[in-house]
Structures are given as C-alpha cells and as structure tokens.
Write a structure and sequence with these properties.
By secondary structure, this protein is mainly alpha-helical. The chain has 10 helices and 2 strands; from the N terminus they run E-E-H-H-H-H-H-H-H-H-H-H. Helix content is 61%, strand content 4%. A two-stranded antiparallel sheet has the order 1-2. Helix 2 (64-91) packs across helix 5 (141-158), helix 5 packs across helix 6 (165-178) and helix 6 packs across helix 10 (223-249).
Length: 252
C-alpha cells in the first residue's frame, strides 16, 4: 500500500510516496536525494549520502555512545543477516529496516539471545507465539526472523485502532512488547474514557495512558504493570531511533 503524506516540519512542504511501514518520519523530517534527472557523480553522491545520514541520525535521541555501539554491531552482526531481513520483510509487506530495528531492540541481533522470561532468539519470541507461527527452533536466526516478521505483520493487520498508519504500527510495536491482549484491553479503556471511535485513537493517546500511573492502579492494581507500560513506550521510541540509524547507514 502506498501513501501520500505531507511533512509539516520541512520548510517547503513536499508530498512523498512511501511504503506503508516507512512511517516514523511522518512526525519528523524526511530527507530525500535530489529529484534531478541528471545522475550524481561519485563526489556529489557521497556528499548527498553523508548529509542524509547526518540528518537521519539527528532524529535519534540516542547518545553518541549508543550510536557508536549500534554502528559497530551493524557492521559485525546485521550485515550477516541483512538478506534474511529483506526477504522476510518482502514476504510480509514490511520495511526491512523496521524489522531489523525491532530485532536490535529485542536482541541486539544476537541469534542466541535468551531472557529470564523464557523468550529467546533474534526476535525474542515466546514459546506459544513461536509455535503459532510454525517456528520450531527459536535459536535458528532464519526461523526467528521469519517468525518475527509474520507476527508484527499480523499485529499491524489486526489492530483496528489509529488515525494513521503510523499510529497503527506504533500500537502494534507496543503489542509486540507488552502483549496484544493487554494493549487491546487498554485501548478499549481509552475508547470509553475519551469517548472516541477506534479509528480516532492515536498512539499519543495510548502512550499517555501507559505512562500515567493512575490508569494502572485503577485498571490493574499494581505498580509492576505501570512500569511495564513505561517500558512499552520506551520500546516503541527506541525502535524508532534504531530505524532512523539503519536508514542512515543504508545510504551508500
């Protein structure tokens, strides 16, 4: 699905055609190469690419230390699996950079990653989720990447909330982290509290709900879920940050 969007932050408003998952820059700035019919020479291309990377990286809120570490792991780990990410993303109508950003947040592209909560692998799938996706070995990077791609695509397709594709995908990312059952319950509560239709609820509505302790005290009754709510918002924010970095590093 191709969307036409307007980016208000750019001084000269431009209409940009994008794949449905290239969405995080909707609320920020999108930087593109020259639309001139004349091809750039090597020096011009290098300069243009460097500027694009710099601008995309400036969108990330990560520290310079975190960016340097990310760059190192991009070279040492991601490049070994980049074809697998691209293929899985293509099969599921996703942006491969988004899929890779999720994987970095989950495991830092470590196919053998494990957690005390029993999730494991590149995409840190739970055992029930893996079984539902036909993944029989979560530590197999190809199976994990394919399973994670199928799962996030399924969440995006099934979530019936959001005023835009960006809202829907942000909500889907929160569901990937916090569980789709929890997110749907919170969204229904928001719908009642704000008297909104499902298509009127934004990611900001959900993120505000998740970071307001009173909501969790009333709905769930413990502070652990409040902390998990904050964690889910941080999760979505960090996936966006990594997405910007991958887009910048992919410029060559």
């Amino acid at each position: 699905m191709v969307l036409i969007i307007e980016v208000n932050q750019i001084k000269k408003i431009k209409k940009i055609r994008i794949n449905r998952t290239i969405f995080f820059v909707l609320s920020a700035m999108i930087f593109t190469f020259s639309c001139s019919d004349q091809p750039l020479n090597n020096e011009e291309l290098s300069s243009s690419c460097a500027n694009t990377k710099e601008k995309l990286w400036s969108l990330s809120n990560l520290s310079e230390f975190e960016k340097d570490k990310f760059n190192l792991l991009y070279q040492e780990r991601l490049l070994s699996y980049i074809d697998e990410f691209k293929e899985a993303a293509k099969l599921n109508n996703l942006d491969w950079e988004l899929l890779a950003a999720i994987a970095f947040q989950e495991s830092q592209w470590n196919p053998k990653a494990r957690s005390a909560t029993q999730v494991k692998g590149m995409m840190m799938l739970t055992l029930p989720t893996a079984k539902s996706l036909g993944v029989d070995n979560r530590l197999d990077p190809v199976q994990s990447i394919n399973g994670g791609a199928s799962y996030i695509a399924k969440l995006i397709d099934e979530i019936n909330f959001g005023t835009s594709t960006g809202d829907t995908i942000s909500i889907a990312l929160a569901a990937y982290n916090l569980g789709v059952g929890n997110i749907n319950r919170y969204l229904e509560e928001i719908q009642i509290n704000l008297n909104k239709e499902n298509f009127e609820i934004t990611w900001d509505d959900l993120s505000s709900f998740l970071t307001e302790e009173v909501n969790h005290n009333e709905l769930i009754g413990n502070s652990t879920n409040y902390k998990r709510g904050i964690q889910a918002v941080d999760y979505v924010t960090r996936v966006k940050d990594y997405y910007y970095l991958i887009l910048g590093l992919g410029c060559n």
